[in-house]
Design brief:
Length: 560
């Protein structure tokens, strides 16, 4: 057997053609083997580089998204800026009074320059320009962003202070039952929207002392604490309900609440069939005190039950109750459509001791009321209480002095087929809109005017877009809680606050490890392909060898 093999090999190597065929075959085999291993590894390297590039693109995209969030935050800074950080504590009294007179002359707009005028009659300490450190040192919990305000509203007590103006246009605000201290610090909450009642009830009663479990709505549902130096501008409280309800822009119901130096501009509307209801510009119902407040409101109350007589209350500051009201300025545009008993007043709808067992002398002094209340009382047993100061007084144990309401207009309607609204017939009402752009020193807004009645109001307030060069992290973001960054507006040198979300950063080590894992995966794939590529290449080489042997080289042998 061995001899035969040796003999065959001798015959093969005697022929030059055979030697050439073997050489070519070996060369092809080497090239094939090289291609089998070298090419996949070259592909692996290229893929590895591509993977790195892809990773870089992902990281770059993440960075761009972060930058976009910052830009979006800058665009929304009208919601989260600290506009009031450089408000003046002392404003020239004559200028302040001039601005207030100018505001009074405009039935549907409040002069922004008249906000937070410090009246000589005020005995309250005005807290302004308080920063984070001062707030914490005085035991306050700072509120710098909308998210922090929403989180604060989950607590029924506490000591809070605003460090920025806030835009609530993206929030469906739930009335906040609160018994603590809320310091506005001269800041404004813009575009508050309330469309639902509080989840709790309070016992109230009508002029006959009949009790009701009453819901409330406003920035606060039930307020039992203190609020000072706060602005609520562009607020809208609109409720449709069959429950007993009391509505106010600042609070639906108060119990021993102290309200000082607040600015209110907004709209309140209640549509209900309940037999006990009230609408107030500042407070719906209750007791306590309101001092040095400026209120410019449109109030609308619509009774939907024509068969059952109700007790309805409407007032520029308070719809019903026993609130001490001193040195307040009120501009009211009221509309009351009722099939029961109307109690409406430029300042208070019905002044009645609350609780019933209360024994003390109230105070209504130094107030100024202008505007109009249009109403109808579809009732054969008509009472039609509507006066410039107080609609109906149930308890006369209060001091009243230096109140001005001579410019108040009582407008009684004697047709009951159409509900009264500021825009007239809502089915045919036509309106125009004028957009007032914000500036570095004033807010922007949209002025809406109804052509049929001439009624106009301002809405959709926006602050001037600010520019911040560098952000400082005040509160670190975690996987469970967003963080807060602070910057300084280079235009007005005002503090600016924004929320930022937690994002888990990928370290260079993690990225390198990820790339190595990817490379390993590619290598394993190449090796697994090599396991079946090699036999295929070997078969192809053998076929090539046979073809060459029995074609080209066989012909050359025959010629020789």
């Amino acid at each position: 057997m061995i001899k035969k093999f040796k003999s065959a090999m001798k015959r093969i190597f005697k022929s030059k053609a055979n030697l050439l065929a073997v050489g070519v075959t070996m060369l092809v085999l080497l090239v094939a083997l090289g291609a089998t291993y070298a090419v996949p590894y070259a592909v692996e390297k290229a893929l590895y580089r591509k993977e790195n590039l892809a990773t870089d693109e992902v990281l770059d995209k993440t960075y761009q998204e972060k930058e976009a969030k910052h830009l979006e935050g800058l665009e929304r800074l009208d919601r989260n800026t600290c506009r009031g950080s450089n408000r003046r504590k002392i404003i020239d009294l004559k200028k302040c009074q001039g601005e207030r007179q100018k505001a009074n002359a405009q039935s549907s707009t409040t002069s922004a320059n008249a906000f937070f005028c410090d009246y000589e009659t005020s005995n309250n300490e005005i807290i302004t320009n308080v920063d984070e450190n001062e707030a914490l040192a005085n035991g306050y919990q700072p509120i710098r962003t909308v998210k922090e305000l929403v989180e604060a509203s989950s607590h029924t007590d506490g000591k809070y202070i605003l460090l920025a103006d806030l835009d609530m246009s993206e929030v469906d605000w739930q009335p906040w039952d609160f018994a603590g201290t809320f310091e506005g610090n001269g800041h404004v909450i813009y575009n508050l929207k309330v469309t639902s009642l509080s989840s709790t009830t309070t016992v109230t009663y009508d002029g006959n002392y009949k009790t009701y479990d009453t819901y409330s709505a406003g920035f606060f549902g039930k307020l039992s604490g203190s609020v000072s130096n706060l602005g609520l501008i562009g607020a809208n409280v609109t409720i449709k309900s069959e429950n007993y309800a009391m509505l106010g822009i600042l609070a639906g119901i108060t119990e021993n609440a102290q309200i000082d130096n607040c600015e209110i501009y907004g709209y309140v509307e209640l549509e209900t069939s309940a037999v006990m209801n009230g609408v107030g510009g500042l407070v719906g119902y209750g007791n306590g005190s309101a001092n040095n407040c400026r209120i410019n409101v449109t109030l609308v109350s619509v009774d939907t039950d024509k068969e059952v007589k109700d007790e309805n209350f409407l007032g520029g500051v308070l719809s019903a109750g026993y609130l001490d009201i001193d040195n307040c300025t009120v501009i009211i545009d009221g509309y009351d459509s009722d099939h029961g008993y109307v109690h409406s007043g430029g300042l208070v709808g019905m002044y009645i001791l609350y609780p019933r067992t209360t024994i003390y002398e109230g105070s209504i002094t130094g107030n100024s009321i202008t505007g109009t209340i249009s109403f109808f009382e579809d009732n054969t047993d008509r009472r039609a209480y509507c006066k410039g100061l107080i609609g109906e007084v149930m308890n006369w144990t209060f001091a009243a002095a230096t109140n001005y309401y001579q410019d108040f207009v009582r407008n009684e309607i004697f047709e009951y087929d159409t509900n009264l609204y500021p825009e007239g017939d809502r089915s045919t009402a036509v309106k125009t809109e004028e957009i007032i752009e914000p500036s570095p020193i004033s807010v922007g807004y949209t002025k809406v005017t109804y052509t049929a009645t001439g009624y106009s109001f301002n809405t959709d307030y926006t602050l001037y877009e600010v520019n911040v060069d560098e952000w400082e992290v005040l509160v670190e973001a975690t996987s469970e809680h967003s963080g807060i960054k602070k910057g300084v507006d280079t235009v007005n040198q005002r503090n600016v606050y924004i929320d930022y979300d937690y994002e888990e950063e990928v370290s260079a080590e993690d990225t390198s490890l990820s790339n190595e894992e990817n490379a390993s995966t590619i290598t394993e794939a190449v090796k697994s392909h090599a396991d079946f590529i090699l036999p295929v290449v070997a078969v192809i080489v053998v076929i090539i060898l046979l073809v060459l042997r029995f074609t080209v080289f066989s012909k050359k042998t025959k010629k020789k």
